[in-house]
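Reproducibility note. Readers wishing to regenerate the assembly model reported in the main text can use the exact inputs given here. Chain order matters: entities are listed in the order in which they were concatenated for prediction.
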Amino acid sequence: MDGQLLSETFVELTDTMVADFDVIDFLHVLTSRSVELLNVSAAGLLLADPRGELRVVAASSEAARLLELFQLQSDEGPCLDCFRSGRPVTATDLSTEERWPRFADAAGQAGFAAVQALPMRLREQVIGALNLFRAAPGEFDAISVRVGQAMADVATIGLLHERSMRRSDILNEQLQTALNSRVIIEQAKGKLAERLGIDVNQAFTLLRDQARNHNQRLSDLARAFVDGTQPVTGPVSGARQRRPGAGRPRPGPPPVA
Amino acid sequence: MTEGRLGRIWRQVAEQAAGRSGQVSAGDVCAAVVPGVQVTGAWLSAARGAEAGHLMRVTNDVSERLAELQLTLGEGPSLDASASGNPALASDLADGEAGFRWPAFTPAAYAVGAAAVFAFPLAIGAIRAGVLGLYRDRAGPLSDFQLGDALVFADTATLLLLDAQERAATGPGGQPAGLALHRAEIDQATGMLTEQLGVSITDAFTRLRAYAYANDLRLADVARDIVGHRLRLPPDPDLSLGDEP
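Running the prediction on these inputs yields the following structure tokens for the assembly.
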């Protein structure tokens, strides 16, 4: 495990009190860093909407996003079990999995053979779940699972801010902000895809890159683009983009969802 | 989201309309949310952008004062909710946090009798229709269940305001179409339609819903066809029929 990236990741995940904190960006960081650090192929994240449903808010790849959606639509899968029980759920070989037959099929088709779901919880409150997907079957390495759970815990505490009086207000504001930002980003993806004749995943990458290059929050850019007050241009060539405030450029692919 | 919650809340809103023998409107949401989530009062303002908008309905004098105070002072939870598109929740105006956020509004609101204030944007992503404000005369957060209900009341008000603005179709039984759904395809299709039709995001969403209603199709199915380039809606808003593949 890359020790420097690990420590930088924890700095990033605790850096939630800054003025320009963007909860969607934050959760994307969690899924991308999970892939970079934990020896997994993809990661996805579900959050509970107080309206009474789980929603996909971030994923490291389109395949992971679709698989999370599939769990919600078919109402079965490790992430749901993990959320409902508040406990980690592991499947080391999906080809022989009997708990979630439809999910196992869909995961196999998406190229995933093993999954580890980690709860995002603080004491009794479960706010969501982080799913780690691997292409090869087999046990998840124990250290990676512990680090993954620690990242999920730190992210949960970051969202909750853990300030007693305002905790529920802040958490609920943050959750709704995340869920609404997700909607705005989807609207912006649709508009940009149509404008440039590209698919929605390419559109997401362009939005994400432009936000990074301009040190702008992704959700702010998405909103301004949908409102017609800010253009989004085509791909920028040259050096890899950086997250604002990050210590150094990151390896690995940009998140897709 | 469970159909049970949607249906239950829709009935509470519809009862308000029946009580005054009128068509269901966003104002009925404002009246229904007060007993619905056990708050003392509510106000609802309509706006098409991030501005404060105009006050459509208040349930009592204190609600009206709270809405007015924010306009007078230029700060407060409703204005934050309008500007940001995110909820602003203050379950205890005396806890210091609220005073830090809204130094002028907080003591003024407390003085007129509010101890907790909750403002919900009436929004679907970048689509904005206004703000629903709630207050309590005693401090305390909305329970998780009440928060879930409040969000569904706000969703209902959003769709009713959009319908009132655009005279778009409503779904079966008068319940606004599209309430149950949080599907990425619907949001993506709405974004695509803004480009295809050259209209605002709000108008694009109205066109999408009107098309689904006029053709007796599910919103998610229409959205999926648009995203999959199997369906294009005609540019003329007076035509409700598209080019079926």
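We highlight two features of this model. Residues 74 and 102 of chain A are 8 Å apart (CA to CA). Chain A is about 50% helix and 15% strand.
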